[in-house]
């Protein structure tokens, strides 16, 4: 079982989009049973709030549902519970390391580092551009899945 936690500032836009895109990709690859996928916020600001409507609509355009997801804050114990904790931007990474007390096992990474254009996911909270965020997140999740499948194959 590979356990992945996607993390952003509010857990209402980017990280829930990544959570439900990744769930859709692993399901379509026939691998849903071998993954546990969730998302969380570095901030408590949006705790309990549902996915932001424009993010929800962008997922729905692609046939992906996210009903029932509400924001919850990252906790130190998540570091032990997950194999990978994937942030969307550099500020997320700094906050994740602060909450988790560092990254002794090298589990914390940026989503776009699994693509050939490493860096940050375009933040739709500030750009209003949910299509661009969708493209970044889809590419990042596809790269992450390919990376994990390569790793699993080389371990066989
Ligand atoms: P997210 O988006 O981190 O992608 O969920 C944001 C949500 C809320 C805020 C910023 C970004 N905020 O400043 O309240």
Characterize the structure shown:
By secondary structure, this protein is of the alpha/beta class. It has 6 helices and 4 strands. It has a 4-stranded parallel beta sheet, with helices on both faces. Helix 1 packs across helix 6 (about 130-155). The two termini are about 15 Å apart. 4-nitrophenyl phosphate binds near residues 11 and 45.
What is the element layout, followed by pairings?
Blueprint (H helix, E strand, L loop, with lengths): L1 E7 L5 H15 L6 E7 L11 H9 L16 H4 L2 E4 L2 H11 L7 E3 L13 H4 L2 H26 L1
Parallel strand pairs: 1-2, 1-3, 3-4
Helix pairs in contact: 1-6
The chain binds 4-nitrophenyl phosphate (4NP).
The site of 4-nitrophenyl phosphate (4NP) has 10 residues, from loops.
């Amino acid at each position: 079982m590979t356990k992945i936690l996607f993390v952003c500032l509010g857990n209402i836009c980017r990280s829930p989009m990544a959570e439900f895109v990744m769930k859709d990709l692993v399901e379509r690859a026939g691998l849903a049973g071998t993954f546990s996928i969730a998302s969380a916020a570095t901030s408590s600001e949006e705790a309990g709030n549902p996915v932001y409507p424009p993010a929800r609509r962008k997922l729905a355009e692609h046939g992906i549902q996210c009903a029932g997801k509400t924001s919850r804050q990252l906790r130190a114990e998540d570091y032990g519970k997950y194999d990978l904790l994937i942030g969307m931007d550099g500020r997320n990474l700094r906050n994740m390391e602060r909450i988790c007390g560092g990254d002794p096992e090298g589990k914390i990474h940026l989503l776009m580092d699994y693509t050939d254009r490493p860096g940050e996911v375009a933040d739709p909270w500030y750009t209003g551009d949910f299509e661009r965020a969708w493209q970044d997140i889809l590419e990042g999740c596809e790269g992450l899945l390919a990376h994990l499948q390569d790793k699993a194959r080389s371990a066989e």
